[in-house]
Each structure stands twice: as structure tokens, then as C-alpha cells.
Amino acid sequence: MIRFALMRLRRKSAAFAVALLAGGAILLGQHAWEIGAFKRPAKGNPVIEPRPESVFQCPVRKAPVHWEALHTFNPAAIVREEKIYVLYRAEDDSGEMAIGGHTSRIGLAESTDGIHFKRRPEPVLYPDEDDQKAREWPGGCEDPRIVEAPDGSYVMTYTQWNRKTYDAGVATSTDLVHWVKHGPMLAKAAGGKYQDLQYKSAAIVTQLRGGRLMAAKIDGTYWMFWGEGNVHLARSANLIDWTPVENASGDLLDVLSPRDGKFDSSFPEAGPPPVLTDRGIVVLYNGKNSSDPELAKDAYAVGQALFRGYDPKQMLSRLEKPFFKPEMPFEKSGQYAAGTTFAEGLVRFHNRWILYYGCADSLVGVAMTQ
């Protein structure tokens, strides 16, 4: 009788635990699904800073430009051949002294330890005399995210900004240096329904394979969390052309929305490529604050949410507070004085997680697990 009673108790406990998890509660082993905890290294930050001496012959201006003179920030990251490569947004010294007023290009830097970087002297993705010029000039190419495809090639999403409108473009490469632009990711969706939509921040779901994060298929489909204001979903068969997930009314499905009084009270925005784990899809995202008294108004901090692994539309849990926020002077000074730790790059390297983030729209920072 005692044995049968214990078996019934175990079954009830297991059922209760499943119910709690489905409802989004945190069980024993608090935040067991969370990626972290991240700490800034004692030395090395910021890891990438402006370099006024860098010169690039701009194919649009037909003149040399100091392409990373003012700001270097908002980085993507990938592991290739036992090195970490960071693709970062760099702003030149043209235009007006205002956020979005300069021309942005994407630079490339490599590291063997994740902290000390060697940079290429010229950008690898930039406005050019190509079929994307009207979308990218004069604002530029901004805020990349990157994943490795199953065939070993690379897929980058980035913001195309012409100072009038913006969208999320897609580019592919086999070596991280030479890129082919494919245009806006939603251009072919729903018969052109989203051609005039303004959207950015596109993060493709990944999974650890062979120690590297690679684009993951769920039920035969690639998935992406994207957008700011509300975060949405899209799916793709080829990692280039994406179709948004819609609700029953034919509108974009919201899967992550603002919360009053929280660090994401103004809005959430997709961060680094999410990670599919045995507990679900872990989504790191950037939250802009409007009403959390623990943060400066308009500051950006980083949160995490868990979505069901076989159904990315279903959120299971969400951190109440940011796991990473502006604390250091270099994260709260620069051209965005409210402060940002704006995460866009996440890698697994030498058995630790490494997070790369933009600091106050001016510098690149790093944090890592122990």
C-alpha cells in the first residue's frame, strides 16, 4: 500500500510540474532554461571602438570615407575555424550629428579568445551601386544578425535604411567577406502584402550542432523571431525568403509584447539568433524601458523568454527582470545617453556562452559565462 501511494504521489507531482511549466511558472532549479549567467571580463571592454584612421573608397560617393570614425556598435557573431568573427555596425563622419544621420557599413573582426580582435581595414557589407542602393543609401547597412546554414554558408539579416524607410534585408556568404544581397526578407510574402511594411531586427532560430550554433529546422521549417514594438514570427524553406505568421484575422501574430512597469515596457525587440534547446526555444531580446523605475527612461536592457520547442508560437516563460543591463560608464555614455546593452551576437565557444552587445550606440561590448 505504501509503495502504491508513493507511485500515485510521484505521478501527481509529475503532472503538477508539467502543468506549472505549461503555465509559464518557474520550478525548482529557478530559471533552469535560461542561458547565462553572463559577466563582463575584468579587462578588455569595450572590445571594438571607433577607428578614425580607417579609410574606404565608397563606391557611391566615389570618394574615400572614414567609414568607422564615429561609432562602432550592434554586433553579430559567429564561430568559424576556431575563431570568433564579429560583424559590427560602423558609422562614418558624414551627415548630421544625430542618431541615424550618418552612413552605416558592416565591418568584420576576428578573435581567438573572444576579447581581443583583429579588424579588416575595410567594411564587408555596405551601400553600393547595386539593386539595393535605393533601400540602403544614404543611411546604410545596420544591425546585423548572422547564422550558419547547414551547408556551411552564412546568412545575415540586417537593416536597410535610406533615411526615409527601412526593412530587414538578407545577404549570404561562404567566407564572411564577400556577400550577395537578396533584398528585403518579406518581399515575396503573401503576394507582396508586406512590401511597404517598415520592419527590422530579424533573428533566425539556431541549435547547437558540433559545438556551433547553426540554423535549425522545426518540423521541416526554418523559423525567425523578428520586429520591434511587438515581436513576430516568420518561417522559411530556404533561409532567404520568409513568410510572416498571421493570426486568424490575417494580421501579424504577436508573440512577445510590451509589459507595463517592466524593462520592456516601451517595447521588446528581437536580439541574437534564438537557441533551440531540450527545454524549448530560448529567445534573448532587447527591451526598451518607459516605466521600470530601476532603469533609466528609454534605456535598453536584455531579457529572455522561453517558447515551446515544437511550436514557436507558444510562450512558456519570460524573465521578470533583465538578465543584463547598462551598468558600466561606457554603456551609458555616447550618442545614446539613456544607456544600452543591445545584444545581437551570441556564440558557444570553448564550452562557454559569449554575448556581444552594442553600448550606447557607440561601442561593442562582451560578456561571457564562466
Describe the structure.
The structure is a single chain. The chain has 370 residues and is mainly β. The protein has one domain: Glycosyl hydrolase domain, family 43 (Tachylectin-2, Chain A, 5 Propeller). The protein contains two helices and 25 strands. The protein has helices at residues 2-22, 133-136; strands at 56-58, 63-65, 71-80, 83-91, 104-111, 118-119, 140-148, 154-161, 166-173, 180-184, 202-204, 206-209, 212-215, 217-218, 221-226, 232-236, 243-244, 267-270, 275-277, 280-288, 300-308, 311-318, 341-349, 352-359, 363-368. The strands form seven sheets. Strands 11, 14, 15, 16 and 17 form a five-stranded antiparallel β-sheet that branches. Strands 18, 19, 20, 21 and 22 form a five-stranded antiparallel β-sheet that branches. A four-stranded antiparallel β-sheet has the order 3-4-5-6, with no helix packed on it.
Notable characteristics:
Tachylectin-2, Chain A; 5-stranded antiparallel sheet; 2 helices; 25 strands; globular
The ordered string of helix (H) and strand (E) elements is HEEEEEEHEEEEEEEEEEEEEEEEEEE
Spell out the CATH superfamily: Glycosyl hydrolase domain, family 43
Q: Outline the biggest β-sheet.
A: 5 strands, antiparallel
Mean of all residue-level pLDDT scores? 92
CATH class membership: Mainly Beta
According to DSSP, the number of beta strands is 25
Helix content: under 10%
Characterize the overall form.
Answer: globular
For the record, the CATH architecture stands as: 5 Propeller
Number of domains: 1
Low-confidence stretches: 1-29
Radius of gyration: 21 Å
CATH topology, by name, is Tachylectin-2, Chain A
